[in-house]
Amino acid sequence: MKDFVRLMVLFAPYRKWMLAGIALSVLVVLANVTLLAVSGWFIAAMALTGLGIQTINYFTPAAAIRGLAVLRTVARYLERLVTHEATFRLLSELRVWFYERLEPLAPAGLEAERHGDLLSHLRADIDSLDNLYLRIVAPATAAFIAGILLTGGLAVFSAKIAFITALALVFTGLLTPLLVTWLGQTVGKRTVALRGEMQVQVADTIRGLGELAIAGAVARRRAQIIGFSLVLGRAQRRTAWTTACFEAFSALVGQATVWLAIVAGITAVSAGTLSGPELTMLVFWVMASFEAVSMLPGAFYAYGETAAAARRLFEIADRHPPVAQSLPGDGNMPSSFDIHFSNVTMGYSEAVPAVLKEFSLKLAQGHTIGITGANGAGKTTLLNLLQRFREPDEGTICIGGIPIGEIGDDNLRKLIAVVAQKTHLFNATIRDNLLIASPDADDTALLDAMETAGLADEVRGFSRGLDTMIGELGTRLSGGQARRLAIARALLRDAPILLLDEPTEGLDATSERKVLAAFTRAKADRTTIIVSHRTLALEYCDQVVLLS
Ligand SMILES: Nc1ncnc2c1ncn2[C@@H]1O[C@H](COP(=O)(O)OP(=O)(O)OP(=O)(O)O)[C@@H](O)[C@H]1O
């Protein structure tokens, strides 16, 4: 319930849409019940008139029936329109809200998260929450209001029939759904978890299909996914089966109530407290009243799945970012770009020894520093700390004498260009991948950067040039081309600090020389850190630090 209350607070800006949807739902039910009740009364009254037992003015009821039929149709149409509009607005609000919470967690706070899982949170879980309004809140509220109005109206004619109907509505609309909800919670949680797991497995499999094929593991993987799908199918079948049983039972209760209403009505007609046409009217009234609660068993059954989806979302959204975020525009921009690590200690967890212990280093502005050392020595960690992806446990890191925490995230991003060890290339054109670094750059600037990175000639040779699509993670480029594209992107940033993590990995000696010369030549006052194991790369540095 706490999660639902939080969601409703999030949805507060759309309360007018939500209320309008509920009001229209009530109107649809009332129009429908009134239409049937008036029709029942009219047919019976006309029959008695035909027998010469009574006379009636049939113009008014005939007009009312036509009016109600139109009202019912129009209200139903508007109700669908408004409730769906409200739902889509709520979902888009929720997607943005969730994304805003997700972004500050990246990259360190989402390392443990699998990509498929995040995708599932963003898509399936948020989509599951459309149940909350459309299938839970709107029908439940409308049923409550319509139920009171309908039984209240019945009581005007027969307290006994009103009482029987109220009991049956509470039974089918409240008790049954509560039981269904209780039963559905475990299966719902399981369905959501299984669906997430399926998504992860499928996304992972598609991404690693090449490796799986080489290892001869495709059939095994396929069997695993089919296994998941069967378990998921069983869980969904159970959900459908339970819902169907309860819906059938509710229908039975509805029919039994109509029968009881007829029995009670006949007694009232015999006693002269109810007329024949009124009895027919009440029977139709009772029968149609169940429409008000007909959505509830299925709706409440969605509660389990919706609650589980909400829980999974909030579990991520409530995580604390590993690094305190600064406000946009908040911070001091340094005027010089020397870098000072002072007694920096940092460990990834308390269970393992710290990666860096009391590490101190001064880098003068305009110098190029090489950092080398064994695998796992902490070189990438050092660069990540400088980019403020993580906070050191102790010590400070300053740029131009200002601790990086006080520079402000937006400023810090402007100061640093990076070629990371695992650079992400987007499934887009070469141009789009470059424009990420400098959105306003023209083609000449893009080709210049690629010239420096030694990629321009190859790109000119592609039939679509800068508009060549590079595929998922740049798979349509060779390893060396992808690396040079990342380098060109970093060069376009024109930032005063350049961080290069194994920048020339995968390049041949000629390209490597060209790229390194370009980096060191490009800007005399740029402070550059090159992390590398390669002696050639280190030759271009003013100073080399061995991390052990
Ligand atoms: N996100 C992480 N969570 C936990 N431990 C990590 C994480 N990232 C790195 N480590 C650990 O920290 C240590 C230093 O890793 P780092 O990537 O900084 O080394 P490196 O010197 O850059 O290595 P390489 O030369 O292989 O790139 C390693 O033992 C690694 O296992």
UniProtKB/TrEMBL annotation:
<dbReference type="InterPro" id="IPR039421">
    <property type="entry name" value="Type_1_exporter"/>
</dbReference>
<dbReference type="Pfam" id="PF00005">
    <property type="entry name" value="ABC_tran"/>
</dbReference>
<feature type="transmembrane region" description="Helical">
    <location>
        <begin position="132"/>
        <end position="155"/>
    </location>
</feature>
<dbReference type="GO" id="GO:0005886">
    <property type="term" value="C:plasma membrane"/>
</dbReference>
<protein>
    <submittedName>
        <fullName>Thiol reductant ABC exporter subunit CydC</fullName>
    </submittedName>
</protein>
<dbReference type="InterPro" id="IPR011527">
    <property type="entry name" value="ABC1_TM_dom"/>
</dbReference>
<keyword id="KW-0472">Membrane</keyword>
<dbReference type="GO" id="GO:0015421">
    <property type="term" value="F:ABC-type oligopeptide transporter activity"/>
</dbReference>
<dbReference type="InterPro" id="IPR036640">
    <property type="entry name" value="ABC1_TM_sf"/>
</dbReference>
<keyword id="KW-0547">Nucleotide-binding</keyword>
<feature type="transmembrane region" description="Helical">
    <location>
        <begin position="161"/>
        <end position="183"/>
    </location>
</feature>
<feature type="domain" description="ABC transmembrane type-1">
    <location>
        <begin position="19"/>
        <end position="305"/>
    </location>
</feature>
<dbReference type="GO" id="GO:0016887">
    <property type="term" value="F:ATP hydrolysis activity"/>
</dbReference>
<feature type="transmembrane region" description="Helical">
    <location>
        <begin position="41"/>
        <end position="59"/>
    </location>
</feature>
<dbReference type="InterPro" id="IPR003439">
    <property type="entry name" value="ABC_transporter-like_ATP-bd"/>
</dbReference>
<dbReference type="InterPro" id="IPR014223">
    <property type="entry name" value="ABC_CydC/D"/>
</dbReference>
<dbReference type="GO" id="GO:0045454">
    <property type="term" value="P:cell redox homeostasis"/>
</dbReference>
<keyword id="KW-0067">ATP-binding</keyword>
<keyword id="KW-1133">Transmembrane helix</keyword>
<feature type="domain" description="ABC transporter">
    <location>
        <begin position="339"/>
        <end position="548"/>
    </location>
</feature>
<dbReference type="InterPro" id="IPR003593">
    <property type="entry name" value="AAA+_ATPase"/>
</dbReference>
<dbReference type="GO" id="GO:0034775">
    <property type="term" value="P:glutathione transmembrane transport"/>
</dbReference>
<feature type="transmembrane region" description="Helical">
    <location>
        <begin position="244"/>
        <end position="270"/>
    </location>
</feature>
<dbReference type="InterPro" id="IPR027417">
    <property type="entry name" value="P-loop_NTPase"/>
</dbReference>
<dbReference type="GO" id="GO:0005524">
    <property type="term" value="F:ATP binding"/>
</dbReference>
<comment type="similarity">
    <text>Belongs to the ABC transporter superfamily.</text>
</comment>
<feature type="transmembrane region" description="Helical">
    <location>
        <begin position="282"/>
        <end position="303"/>
    </location>
</feature>
<keyword id="KW-0812">Transmembrane</keyword>
<dbReference type="InterPro" id="IPR017871">
    <property type="entry name" value="ABC_transporter-like_CS"/>
</dbReference>
